[in-house]
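Researcher: I'd like a structural prediction for the single chain below. Treat it as a standalone chain; there are no partners to consider.
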Amino acid sequence: MTLTTAACATAPRQPRVIAMDDIRVGPSRQAIFIGDYERALVSIAAVTERELGLPKLSASLHFFPDRDALRAALEAQGADPVVARDAAAVMMAIGGPGSVFINEAAFADLNWSSRIAVLAHELAHTMQYDLARGRRGTSDQWLREGFAEWVQAEVLEALGVMRREDIRRRSVRWVQDAHARRNLPPLARLATFPEWVSFHNGRARDSLYPYAFVATDFLIRRHGVDAVTTYFRLFADSDDRFVNFAKAFGEEWSAFDAALREYFSRLLP
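Model: Treating it as a single chain, here is the predicted structure.
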């Protein structure tokens, strides 16, 4: 979701904010030593920047007390009211340009390993905006979510929470189960944020993120992580998603889609 600044006479009260640039604590190499948001942020940044070679994190966390406050904040930032309502109903955090908006009531029920997982995912979204100079453009939502899940998996392994391959195997099992129940939409129907939210609110809810992760993992194994960051950079100047895909990955979307379907045919019963 694009969180653009918009004037609003009924804007919600200012949230509690933790900015990356204001943090003075050092990173931890293990999640068991992380018990506050400041250390969580710098520890995630250490993994994404030093180990994955991704852009420098400069995001801030914005905490809203509950779902209604999160919805109001999204609307105040220019989001369509229906999309803001649906997003706040199912998502505990949403990453935008330079910021992660958090439903603090939902986060309160999570342990720190789970909070780190959500933060890593949402901070990856802020990187996608940074790569495109603040624009979302028409980059495919499945790839935005799949790459955020891929970054999350790398962070969780680096911080000793869960092995990357265990996450991949678990995701494949979710995809297999969703396929058996005929709940998997084609990736082409997951290109926009409203499409993603619509399917997330339906029967495919539990399988969408594993589905996007497995597809993105296949794409990265095929072309490398630098090609993904190039893809997002291209949207700074162009909204032609098919041309940008071909430039970044060296193959047409149709060719990748065919290769992915063949890959899934080997994974699915």
